[in-house]
């Protein structure tokens, strides 16, 4: 049976679809699983051994539909359920089932703070879309596969102090209202009291540089004129309130590709992350996660899946959630959802070894 799974974006969402892909491949007799997404996520598809073939939206939707039609699929599992995937299904004209996005319930929560969302993780809702195929949740959690060439050798990559154990801190996120202000990142790193590897893309490199400088002895609170200040309405340089001398910073932002960053997450003692893709990658490796939430909320169903985690958030804030995705700046101007989070980490004493 030839089955097509649709999910065009993004990193975290595609990682969250992996239990569905695995379940179909292992539970449907003779299943051949294909996955359709954007070319930016090719690496996630090609590294997954449960996926026979990837298809990518490189041109027009009509061209993609022609490519998919030639495959003669028996069934489509739509885990995106937007206009584009609906048009594709219409053109392919084969049996299908779709993920329920619960947009009305999300709108109620964002607009009126009325929570009618089910107490169900999005993975279980994805699996419900594949239920007509007879698949069930195997309880194994998320998958993430790192190609051997992208495994990071800590002994040759990180400074000596980090090779005995570190915290991975994913400081990036697509939207500013899902990221801590820089001075709060510094404060949180200080409370960790152990080596911290900052992870993110090239767009996060300057933020990581400011954090790194904050923990250097000669420049704990000053940013030299040569440093690039992040272009963000939430940058407020000030003295870190809880700077522990045991905290060491290695700014890995922009230095590693996604698979290599995942390798650093896999080898970390624990992970701190905003509501972003690396948080779900950490969950795939069953890491202990401190999950930081700003304008979005765990009630949307995208908290770390089947791993130990703690949520850091401001509960009871009247304006939260203000969006199901995020904004470039706080609509209210105060950004209390991030600025007022209490970092009650209650960590065990730092120790060598992972």
Written overview of the protein:
30% of the residues lie in helices and 14% in strands. It has 13 helices and 11 strands. The chain has helices at residues 11-16, 18-27, 42-46, 61-69, 83-92, 103-112, 122-130, 154-157, 182-192, 205-214, 258-266, 277-284, 336-339; strands spanning 2-6, 32-37, 53-56, 75-78, 96-98, 167-170, 195-199, 248-251, 270-274, 289-292, 309-312. It is globular and about 60 Å long. The model is unreliable at 218-227 and 232-244 (pLDDT under 50).
Ordered list of secondary-structure elements with their pairings:
Layout (H helix, E strand, L loop, with lengths): L1 E5 L4 H6 L1 H10 L4 E6 L4 H5 L6 E4 L4 H9 L5 E4 L4 H10 L3 E3 L4 H10 L9 H9 L23 H4 L9 E4 L11 H11 L2 E5 L5 H10 L33 E4 L6 H9 L3 E5 L2 H8 L4 E4 L16 E4 L23 H4 L15
Protein name: Glycosyltransferase family 9 protein
Keywords: Glycosyltransferase, Transferase
Organism: Hymenobacter defluvii
């Amino acid at each position: 049976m030839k089955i097509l799974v649709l999910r065009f974006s993004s990193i975290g969402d595609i990682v969250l679809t992996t239990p569905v892909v695995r379940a179909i491949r292992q539970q449907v007799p003779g299943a051949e699983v294909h996955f359709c997404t954007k070319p930016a996520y090719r690496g996630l598809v090609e590294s997954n051994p449960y996926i026979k073939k990837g298809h990518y939206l490189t041109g027009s939707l009509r061209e993609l539909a022609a490519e998919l039609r030639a495959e003669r699929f028996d069934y489509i599992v739509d885990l995106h359920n937007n206009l584009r995937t609906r048009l594709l299904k219409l053109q392919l004209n084969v049996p299908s089932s779709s993920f329920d996005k619960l947009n009305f319930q999300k709108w109620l929560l964002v607009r009126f703070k009325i929570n009618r969302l089910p107490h169900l993780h999005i993975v279980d809702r994805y699996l419900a879309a594949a239920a007509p195929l007879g698949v069930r949740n195997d309880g194994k959690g998320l998958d993430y596969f790192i190609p051997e060439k992208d495994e990071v050798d800590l002994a040759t990559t990180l400074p000596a102090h980090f090779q005995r154990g570190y915290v991975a801190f994913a400081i990036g996120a697509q939207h500013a209202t899902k990221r801590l202000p820089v001075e709060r990142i510094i404060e949180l790193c200080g409370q960790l009291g152990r080596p911290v590897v900052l992870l993110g893309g090239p767009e996060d490199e300057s933020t990581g540089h400011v954090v790194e400088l904050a923990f250097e002895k000669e420049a704990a609170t000053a940013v030299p004129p040569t440093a690039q200040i992040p272009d963000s309405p939430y940058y407020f340089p000030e003295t870190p309130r809880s700077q522990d001398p045991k905290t060491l910073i290695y700014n890995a932002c922009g230095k590693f590709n996604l698979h290599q960053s995942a390798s650093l997450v896999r080898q970390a003692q624990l992970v701190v992350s905003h509501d972003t893709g690396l948080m779900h990658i950490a969950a795939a490796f069953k890491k202990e996660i401190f999950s930081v939430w700003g304008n979005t909320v765990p009630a949307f169903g995208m908290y770390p899946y089947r791993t130990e985690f703690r949520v850091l958030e401001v509960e009871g804030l009247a304006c939260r959630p203000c969006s199901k995705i995020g904004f470039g700046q706080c609509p209210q101007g105060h950004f209390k959802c991030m600025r007022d989070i209490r970092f009650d980490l209650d960590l065990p004493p730092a120790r060598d070894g992972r």
